[in-house]
Design brief:
By secondary structure, the protein is of the alpha/beta class. The chain folds into 2 domains: 111 residues, 3-Layer(aba) Sandwich (Rossmann fold), CATH 3.40.50.300; 59 residues. Strands 2-3-4-1-5 form a 5-stranded parallel sheet. Strand 3, helix 4 and strand 4 form a beta-alpha-beta unit. Helix 6 crosses helix 7.
Length: 201
């Protein structure tokens, strides 16, 4: 495997490239046990609020991975709303894009909901009879936790046993000084850095 571009760093690939859904869950540094507990209560909704790149999707996928009957749907921008599946819980990513009538029907089902959203949907959720728990994603991000997240991605790309690159807490603090809690922007910059190290990009 030494012919691979990243083999000199003991990596299979650029660790900050696109991940599969399963790898996103494996790379997650989140604790959703309390979320799973809350979803056992009747007519409960959890909403994860943040701008793009802060980790809303990671939280939703991590919850879905622990709920065998869950259904996850992503609402793309500037495209027709996809069918809303049935699941327990139902996880809707980019829920602020739900058309009003679709949202009303989905909320009227009464099952457990988990939403990733840019806007607070407490009002319509409560009008539909939900008890709402709100999480503002990214506000508690620290350099220590960011370093853990970035190093987890590097570990997932490890080629064989041995030394691999590491992101120090000091480096993570520097990235946060540049991008704040925008993890996606940090990962994009790191992708470019790793590409440059093999002479690409």
């Amino acid at each position: 495997m030494d012919w691979q571009p990243f083999a000199a760093m003991n990596l299979l690939r650029n660790p900050f490239g696109e991940l599969t859904r399963d790898d996103r869950v494996r790379a997650a540094v989140v604790d959703v046990a309390h979320c799973i507990d809350r979803l056992q209560q009747p007519q409960t909704a959890l909403q994860f609020i943040a701008d793009c790149g802060r980790g809303k999707t990671t939280h939703l996928l991590s919850i879905a991975a622990q709920a065998p009957e869950a259904a996850y749907v992503y609402l793309p921008e500037d495209e027709r709303c996809p069918p809303i599946p049935h699941g327990q819980p139902l996880l809707i990513d980019e829920a602020q894009r739900l058309p009003w009538l679709v949202r009303r029907r989905a909320f009227a089902r009464g099952g457990a909901l988990v939403l990733g959203t840019h806007v607070d949907l407490t009002g319509p959720l409560r009008r539909a009879g939900y008890r709402v728990w709100t999480y503002h994603v990214g506000q508690d991000l620290t350099a220590e936790r960011l370093a853990q997240m970035l190093n987890r991605r590097i570990q997932l790309a490890q080629l064989r046993s041995g030394t691999i690159p590491q992101i120090s807490e000091a480096e993570a603090a520097d990235w946060m000084a540049r991008h704040g809690s925008d993890i996606r922007a940090i990962e994009f910059d790191l992708y470019e850095r790793f590409q440059q190290q093999i002479g690409v990009g």
